Amino acid sequence: MHCFPQFISIANSIRELICQGYLFGAKVLFRPLVERAMILLYLKERPEDIEKWKRGWHLDDGAPSLAKMFSVIQAQVNPTSHIKGYVFTNEMNSMVHGKPESAFTNLVSLDTNRIGYAVSKNLNSPDLCDEICADVLLWLVCVQGMTAFYFPNE
Hints:
Blueprint: H1 3-20, H2 23-28, H3 30-45, H4 50-55, H5 66-77, H6 85-97, E1 107-109, E2 115-117, H7 126-150
Antiparallel strand pairs: 1-2
């Protein structure tokens, strides 16, 4: 299944970006990372939907959106929850699609007691670095579990 090596490759890319101080780029890559993990979770719950992936996203009966996958998984985990999938994806979508709220992610303090936007490395935001690392770590654990599920004899 292609999602496993893609997930690891994206996780490594995020790691490299963080090590180099490119936190905004690392944050943007978080959505594609989550999407690979959610595909694995979704197909575990709905293996009959594998044909939808073969058809792609461009059709009405094709693969579900990331928000839809979150909704399906949420319903499995907590059937009484009324949280919609888009609640989980709003921030990630904002980062990927350049929505105005994403602008806060690359704000930095300037030497003159003002704020500005980091257009290159951001070496002065340890909280953002920690946030990204913590978020990625949770999905790494999830994919480790999916590896055991999909490849039980390996």
